[in-house]
Amino acid sequence: MTVSRKESDEGANKYTAPALSKGLDILELLASRAEGMRKSDIAKSLDRSISEIFRMLAVLNEREYVSFDPATERYSLTTKLFEIAHRHPPVRRLSSIAIDTMRKLALDVNQSVHLAILHGDDILIIAQVDAPGNNVTSVRLGARVPITITASGAVLFSSLPPKEREKLLDRTRQKEPELVDTFRRNVENFEKLGWCESVSEVIEGVHNMSVPVRDYSGTIVAALTIPFINRLRTDHFLPIGDTRARLIEAGRTISELLGSRASAAGSADSP
Prior knowledge:
- By secondary structure, the protein is α+β, with helices and mostly antiparallel strands.
- It contains ten helices and nine strands.
- The relative contact order is 0.10.
């Protein structure tokens, strides 16, 4: 699919910065291509000349926003943008407050734990703790995952105003209409129970469970999630109901540390 910003560059906005737009176009494109891209493919995707793209890539590489692999001739996004985002006080404070509780939870239930926030139509993983055992199923720190295929997404979706919810669902219907009904059910279950559970849309055998983290006003600001897996041949394994109860309590604890007086999740009883 060809992506072009020329029309917006040329007059959709009163004030334009074409060079900046080209640089941002490259960053946004590379963010969706984990394997990286060659210079010619970037130019084609953005409907730009190779000479334009080369100059932008040279600057982005020099500033360490992208890296270049001479062996494959591919440019890839570095972690610099993620590192910059973590300098933003709200994100840094949230992850620093949550991390001790997350470590304790991972140790108690022998499962990986991650914390996610909204990032456009995706969730963004801002903190992550591996399970203490040898076998680990976890989401990479800094990963972005479409909101509609995650339990975290169902929790965070509930914090959006009604108009934004409908716009997001409309965009999903256009791209992946088969996801909408399942996602709606996950959202409804969360709003009824105070926590969300769903079969993973990405890895077979993983059962995601997620609870909200709330700030001082009671607003949902993050989702605390366990990608639950059944563990065999281990003395340290909690069944799913007990794991859920510990997750709910951890969500409440982090919310209270953020100053919330509202319940961070619903009942810890099994469904």
